[in-house]
TrEMBL record:
Transmembrane segments: none annotated. Residues 242-305 form the YknX-like C-terminal permuted SH3-like domain. It comes from Candidatus Schekmanbacteria bacterium RBG_13_48_7. Residues 66-100 form a coiled coil. Belongs to the membrane fusion protein (MFP) (TC 8.A.1) family. This is Uncharacterized protein. One of its GO terms (cellular component) is efflux pump complex. InterPro entries: Beta-barrel_RND_2, MacA_alpha-hairpin_sf, RND_pump_MFP, YknX-like_C. One of its GO terms (molecular function) is efflux transmembrane transporter activity. Residues 150-222 form the CusB-like beta-barrel domain.
Length: 308
C-alpha cells in the first residue's frame, strides 16, 4: 500500500494522554475565569478609590480608609500578574500534552510503500524488543521505492578495485534478460571474517515499478573505461578474470556455473585489461564462472560456490 509522508499509519493507546490534555485545558479555563473576576474587582476598586479620595478631601472619611483603597488596588494588580503567569504555565502544559498525544500517532516518515504490518491491535511496541510474544519492534515496515539499492558481498581480495561512484550493472533474478544501471553508493569499512567478504551498497539508477525490495540480484562492477553508456543501444562491456578462460582446439571457453553444476560455454574474447579479459559474447553479466579447479571439472560436474 502506498502512503504519503505524515500520513497516519497507526495509533498507540492514548486514553491517558487525552485525559491529561483535558485536565490541563480545564485548569486553564479555571485560571482564565479567576483572571476575569479579578479584573472586574480591579475596575470596581479603582472606582472605589476615586470615591474614597473625594470623600477624604471633603472630610468624610479617614486616612486609613484611603490607604486601604490603595492597598486593595495593589493587591489586585499583583493577583492579576500571578494569574497571567499561571495562564502562561497552563498554555505550556497544554502544548506538552498535545505533543505527547501527537506522539501516539505513528506517521509515515516519507513517501513510500508499506511492505508488511509488523504489529497487531493489542500488541506492545517498543524501540528494542526485550522479549515476550506480545512485544514488537515496529508497527510496519516501509520502503522508499525511488531509492532502492543492492547489497553485494564482494570478496575482500577484489575490494580494492571497487570505488564509490563506480558504475555497475545489475541483473535481477526476476528479470534475467534485463540490465539495470547502478552506481556504488557505499563500501562498508568492515569485513565479514567468516565469509571473507566486504559489503558494498549499489544504488539502482533506473526507476522501474517492477523492482521490489528483497529481490535477488547480481551485480557486475564496471571499470572506469567500460562504464555504462547513456545510449540504451550501447551495451556495457563485460570483463571476467582471465584465469577463467580456457582453450581447447583454439576455441576459448569458460565453465559456467548454473544450478550448482558446470556447463561449458564457448566465448569470444577481446583485449586484456589488467587481469580481466573482455568477453564479447558467450556469457552475460551476472553469470558465475569457475576460476580454479579445472582438472576436476567436466560437463555437469556439481560444484560449490565459495565466493561470488
Amino acid at each position: 500500500m502506498a502512503v504519503k509522508k505524515n500520513e497516519i499509519l497507526a495509533r498507540l493507546e492514548n486514553s491517558d494522554y487525552k485525559a491529561a490534555l483535558q485536565q490541563v485545558q480545564a485548569n486553564l479555563n479555571v485560571v482564565k475565569s479567576s483572571l476575569k473576576e479579578t479584573s472586574v474587582d480591579l475596575e470596581q476598586a479603582i472606582k472605589d478609590k476615586t470615591r474614597i479620595y473625594k470623600l477624604f478631601e471633603d472630610g468624610y472619611t479617614t486616612e486609613q480608609q484611603k490607604d486601604d483603597a490603595d492597598f486593595r488596588i495593589e493587591a489586585l494588580n499583583a493577583r492579576i500578574k500571578s494569574l497571567e503567569a499561571q495562564i502562561a504555565s497552563a498554555k505550556a502544559a497544554i502544548n506538552l500534552a498535545l505533543a505527547n498525544l501527537e506522539n501516539t500517532y505513528i506517521r509515515a516518515p516519507f513517501d513510500g510503500v508499506i511492505l508488511r504490518k509488523d504489529a497487531e491491535v493489542g500488541e506492545i511496541v517498543a524501540p528494542a524488543v526485550i522479549g515476550g510474544g506480545l512485544t514488537r519492534g515496529a508497527v510496519v515496515t516501509m520502503a522508499d521505492l525511488s531509492t532502492l539499492e543492492v547489497e553485494a558481498d564482494v570478496n575482500e581480495a577484489y575490494i580494492s578495485q571497487i570505488k564509490v561512484n563506480q558504475d555497475a550493472e545489475i541483473i535481477l533474478d526476476a528479470f534475467p534478460d534485463e540490465r539495470f544501471h547502478g552506481k556504488v553508493r557505499q563500501i562498508i569499512p568492515t569485513a565479514d571474517r567468516q565469509k571473507a567478504t566486504v559489503l558494498v551498497k549499489v544504488s539502482i539508477l533506473d526507476k522501474d515499478k517492477r523492482i521490489l525490495p528483497e529481490m535477488g540480484a547480481k551485480v557486475t562492477f564496471l571499470d572506469a573505461d567500460t562504464s555504462l553508456k547513456s545510449n540504451e543501444n550501447d551495451k556495457p562491456q563485460l570483463f571476467v578474470n582471465d584465469a577463467a578462460i580456457r582453450v581447447d582446439n583454439q576455441k576459448r571457453y569458460v565453465w559456467k556455473v548454473q544450478n550448482f553444476r558446470v556447463i561449458r560455454k564457448n566465448v569470444e574474447t577481446g583485449e586484456l585489461n589488467g587481469f580481466k579479459r573482455l568477453i564479447k559474447n558467450g556469457i552475460s553479466a551476472g553469470d558465475v564462472v569457475a576460476v580454479s579447479g579445472f582438472e576436476n571439472l567436466s560437463e555437469g560436474t556439481r560444484v560449490k560456490i565459495k565466493n561470488r
